Amino acid sequence: MDFHSDIIRALHQQTRRQFLKQGSLGLGALALTFLNGGCSDSSSKGNGIITDQNPFAPKPPHFPGRVKNVIYIHMAGAPSQLELFEYKPELLKLDGQLCPPSLMEGKRFAFIRGIPKMLGPQAIFNQHGESRAWISNLLPHLSTIADELTFLKAVHTDQFNHAPAQLLMHTGTPRLGRPSLGSWVTYGLGTENSNLPGFVVLTSGGNNPDAGKSVWGNGFLPSVYQGVHCRSDGDPVLFINNPSDIDQEKRKSTIDAINDINRLTYQEFKDAETLTRISQYELAYNMQITVPEVMNIADEPEYIHSMYGSNPHESIFANNALLARKLVERGVRFVQLFDWGWDTHGTSEDGSIDIGLVNKCRQTDKAVTALILDLKQRGLLDETLVIWGGEFGRTPMQENREGKVNPFKGRDHHAEAFTMWMAGGGLKKGFSYGETDEIGYSAMEGKVDPFDIQATILHLLGFDHERLTYPFQGRNFRLTDVGGRVIKEILA
Amino acid sequence: MKILHKNRLIATGLILTVLTVVAFLLFPEEKIDYNSQVKPILNKHCISCHGGVKKNGGFSLLFEGEAKAETKSGHLAIIPGHPDKSEMIRRLTSDDPEERMPYEKPPLSSADIKILRKWIAQGAQWGIHWAYLPVGNPATPDLKNNDEFRSWGRNDIDNFIYEKIHAYGLTPSPRAALPILARRLSLDLIGLPPPPDSFDSISSAESDTLMDSFVDALMESPHFGEKWAGMWMDLARYSDTKGYERDDSRTIWKYRDWLIKSFNEDKPYDRFLIEQIAGDLFENPTEDDMIATAFHRNTMTNDEGGTDNEEFRVAAVIDRVNTTWETVMGTSFACVQCHSHPFDPIKHDEYYKVMAFFNNTRDEDTFDDYPVFRHFSEADSLNFYELKAWLHQNADQKKAREIQMLVQTWQPTINSLVSDQFVNSELSDTKWLVYRKNGSSRLRDISLDGKNTIIARFRSFKPGGKIDIHIDSLTGSKIASYSFPQTDGRWDYAEIKCLETPGRHDLHFHYTNSNLPDSLSNGIMFDWLYLSDGFPGKGVSGYEANKEKFWQLMKINAFQTPVMLENPPEMHRQTKVFERGNWLTQGETVQPGVPAFLELPMDNLPNNRLGLAQWITDPSHPLTARVYVNRLWEQLFGIGIVETLEDFGTQGIAPTHQALLDHLAWKFVHEFHWSTKKMLKYIVSSATYQQSSKSASEQLEIDPQNRLYARGRRMRLSAEQIRDQALVVSGLFSEKMYGPSVMPFQPENIWNSPYNGRKWVQNSGENQYRRALYTYWKRTGAYPSMLIFDAMPREVCASRRISTNTPLQALVTLNDPVYVEAADRFAMRMLKEGGNTPEEQISHGYYLMMCMPITEEKLNILINLYKSVKNDSLIKTVALRETDKNDSAHLAAMKIVANAMLNLDEFIMKN
């Protein structure tokens, strides 16, 4: 069996002495003393009933990884690669012409019906850095760090609707029900700070991603591996704050009393589950102190706020970018950012290439750039993997719905070719992999799919994606299903 | 488990070695057993390259026929009786690394090879996996002469359990203390804590009789059905929303209520299944039979704009196949979707034969979840019965039934979303057909035989619109023309006369309207069309009045439940094999049929879903009863006799007590006649179930996982039980049953689906305190505190929840306003009912929680907590009046104590 089958067994057994290893200060120490000395002989003989298995204990991967943490920035709705990274002068020449039927044959589109017209780039492109990467004027900040980035220019997927495509990107299937990337990673690696959740999700843009909480769901993995959605309104983590009339001192007295009685219960029944519960209450107490502290960005220095464009009084993407750095710095394994509102069909002002996309870039460009620079200046970029992308790309054609002309410039969903980028440890910096044809319609070289990206992320963390598995419904499942190739070409 | 396993392995290994040696010396013909000796070797070393997925060298070991056939090389891998001539043995023992199997892997042990040789020498007889063999009635182990057993055992279950406990040198545990047992029984059978005084001052002599009636009382409680419906709702992937991106509401709670009622009336399990799988195909289905079929309408519907409705219809059908096999037959049938089963003898095309049973329902991923059953109010029902009676008198049977079905279900209609060839028209939001100025579209291949009337559900946005319908092309002959009234966007119904035309034709619709201001404005939208030969009985007395009734019923805004309904013959879909599971790559056409591996043919049964349901519930079906009694066992003991509830195949975990499982399955079918209540009573009456859960160190040593059942099993309560229990002891609990799902307190911003305006609107009054299973369940944003306690999101069928123990759970019961309110109310209850001193009050509270008196040690801890918080500066500022029970400092301190009490391990757990 695999190295993690012990965890599964431990979870089934419900016999975990969780977190005690790390929680050896304060309240945790009490429990530890109790465990080692205070309780009856049966637990100290190492007969298997009390294991050291903690579902979040840091665990070695299959081989030494290049990075320890992941920040995945998903622009939900699918940003247009043709306005950001794909410079296609040929497309400009074709602007306004009817799309040749050869491009339409045998293709399925979400909304395009009939023959659409080609739409030239709606941005100005320049080359940046020593790598001479093409980045448009919509991303002036990111342009300054072009040499930190590793582009995947020929990503393709087989899903052309938002929810299924997001699910495929994050869970390896277009249907609901499988664990997300962050769940697999925390299942495989554990986390380094048990006072914080191992897998944190931050959302902005006014809506959850189209596929809902399932994109950070634990699927069939135990629920401990579910992403914890940290919120900008109310409790940063659900139920982390005490009721108004309970202060931390009273909370501590309460937990002490609960655990004192639970120790009596343990003496009576000798159920290791009770010991686990004792330590979980200690940990809950620690989290109540740590989480609000980490989630509070008001204490960050002014130069950091101006670097990110963050503002503690608003609910914006920039705050989440800053939080992502803070969380990684504190040992959170996987931070998932979702920003909603990148779907630019041209049916409305917000949902357009000419206005909506420009605004979305303004809201995020500075913060994304700041995140990379901030990680770098703290020496964290080498051990962190940052990924930026959408669930698919956008068509070189202007959207057309049976002759109905949309009021704004817009592009339909496009599954055949789009751009994503990565930055951080283990990658060739200032590098671009993959090419599309002269109008950015089809991937020509260096084609990669979501499974390849997942396999590569797992590889950088030290996992063979074919061996990170979990048994469910009678078979061993893995994130990459039956696909996945590590994109060795981009590895340093 | 580790230890047990190791011991067992060593023991088994030793015994086997000894036996083999002895057998070899004394009985050289000792018979090799395929299932226990050969299949494990094949599964481990051979089948991943020579099985259902890969057949390297043209050789597969999955089916006997294939294994004994000629391989690609022309050799026979297995020649029964001749191990030395068998290519398989030669390759296993070859010295050439290019030839030796397993390829590029370590060779098989000589012991394994010996077994294979001998098996071939003895004729290479194939065996059937234990779970695929018919259920027998195994002999109960005879323990008459065992004194220890006689003083412990209560029914035959205990014979099976004791035999194994004894073999491992353990002794069973005594019966749990009565209050503990009362709480265990109550939580297990009705999911709620018992009345605390159930077992007060009962002598042990009286306890047996009392226990018996206590169990009966629990079984008769209406809450019994709620608890067991909860189990089934995970399997049925019950949800109040449709899933995927928009995850909009769906009203399907009548199915949840049907489940509760079915468990309460102890509907025999075979009937329970047949109604859910095929209730719509009964001769005269009742409203309840129809609601039961909502079981398979809990599949997801995708409302996201731009999605291919056929793709998600197919996804729903596949989900029905997989769910049926996992839920009812514990088989990982989903594997067979893409290829033959890698480990179990199921062929690829057999998946699609089963799918063919499910592939002809009317659902097409429509926004309104058609087909639906339309529930009538009392007044409407009266109208309906009058109409029915008139039709009976004045129309032929077939026509009467047709009208009845149309009124009750609006079926079989043609959904407008199957249209194509759109010109100045489109599927609005990919859901409804919409025409603009001079718009047209096509409906393909429609049977027009005998049809002279079209009923259309439509809404129009401008006056003056007209539709012409042509056959075969836009310029083909016109069979109908109709001018539509304006409805200001409301849905309405039109009755359109059309020319009777023989045969099947494409219908081309052409819309014109001179009142549309521009080419972008929508003129009219269609939901569905219904073609018929009109309302019967023209000229007969009552025709006008009853046609009026018919229209009234068609138009009322009835409450709807999605149900299963079969396609009429003219709408029949063919089912094809999907190559490698891809619905866009279709292979040969298949007919409905059941897989061969269970060796239970479908003779004399109708070749439709009803026949399939009857096949599944055939008393000699090897899996159905075994899988169900194993589920019941798991609900009571926290782990199944077969641990993998979802997989009884060769890759599942073998049963710990196979004979007991068969004993239970046999009794369930042949003695209890599929009665869930009788089965449960039988199990909970056993000494095995009633044991104390205190662990002796010897038991922990030998059997840490408690797979021998020498003690009771402590289990954490389910997400639902934890909530319900807190509400019950605090006195907040509402016993109200049934009805639409409710929205108790939920933190802000849990729901945030795009393009979905729905909001969580907190209920007022008792609906805030209903049982957890009535909580509105949204797939992509499920009730957070229950998810934290391991509830399933119910996106797909889930056989078991894996119980976890996390700090986030502690935060729920400490801080979730639901639990804070429960603690506050619990404190008030202690003050009100518990006497005068904090000691008395806390003791009373503990008794309410645990049904037994509190020990002095525990009381002291809580009193100390009480004192420390009461002396706290915050609370001190309030004047202390010790004698006044409603003293606010006293109450404030008691609230904190109550919060601690509701968080105790023994309260969250079942002892």
Structural class of chain A: alpha/beta
The total of beta strands of chain B comes to 15
Beta fraction of chain B: 5-15%
Model regions low in confidence, pLDDT < 50 over at least 5 residues of chain B? 1-14, 16-28, 876-885
Beta content of chain A = 15-25%
Would you kindly provide a written description of the structure presented here, covering whatever features stand out?
The complex is a heterodimer of chains A (492) and B (911). Chain A has 492 residues and is α/β, with parallel strands linked by helices. Chain A has 14 helices and 18 strands. In chain A, the strands form 6 sheets. Chain A has an 8-stranded mixed sheet with strand order 6-5-7-1-8-13-4-14, sandwiched between helices. Chain B has 911 residues and is of the alpha+beta class. In chain B, helix 2 packs across helix 5 and helix 27 (807-815) crosses helix 28. The longest helix of chain B is centred in the N-terminal third of the chain and has 25 residues, at 2-26. Chain B is globular and about 90 Å long. The model of chain B is unreliable at 1-14, 16-28 and 876-885 (pLDDT under 50). Chains A and B meet through helix 1, helix 7, helix 9, helix 10 and strand 11 of A and strand 3, helix 24, helix 26, helix 27 and helix 30 of B.
Topology summary:
The complex is a heterodimer of chains A (492) and B (911).
Chain A: H1 5-13, H2 27-38, H3 41-44, E1 69-76, H4 81-84, H5 89-94, E2 125-128, E3 133-136, H6 140-143, E4 149-155, H7 162-171, H8 181-189, E5 199-204, E6 228-229, H9 248-269, H10 272-295, H11 302-308, H12 317-329, E7 334-340, H13 356-377, E8 384-389, E9 393-398, E10 400-401, E11 404-405, E12 411-414, E13 418-424, E14 431-433, E15 435-436, E16 443-445, H14 450-461, E17 469-472, E18 475-478
Parallel strand pairs in A: 1-7, 1-8, 4-14, 5-6, 5-7
Antiparallel strand pairs in A: 2-3, 4-13, 8-13, 9-12, 10-11, 15-16, 17-18
Helix pairs in contact in A: 2-10, 9-10, 12-13
Chain B: H1 2-26, H2 34-46, H3 64-67, H4 87-93, H5 110-121, H6 147-150, H7 156-167, H8 178-189, H9 204-220, H10 223-235, H11 253-264, H12 269-278, H13 287-292, H14 309-329, H15 348-358, E1 372-375, H16 378-394, H17 397-409, E2 414-415, E3 420-428, E4 432-447, E5 453-460, E6 465-471, E7 478-484, E8 492-497, E9 504-512, E10 524-532, H18 543-555, E11 559-562, E12 575-578, E13 586-590, H19 609-616, H20 624-637, H21 658-671, H22 676-684, H23 687-690, H24 697-702, E14 715-716, H25 719-730, H26 784-788, H27 807-815, H28 817-833, H29 838-850, H30 856-870, H31 873-876, H32 888-901, H33 905-908, E15 909-910
Antiparallel strand pairs in B: 1-11, 2-10, 3-4, 4-9, 4-10, 5-8, 5-10, 6-7, 6-9, 12-13, 14-15
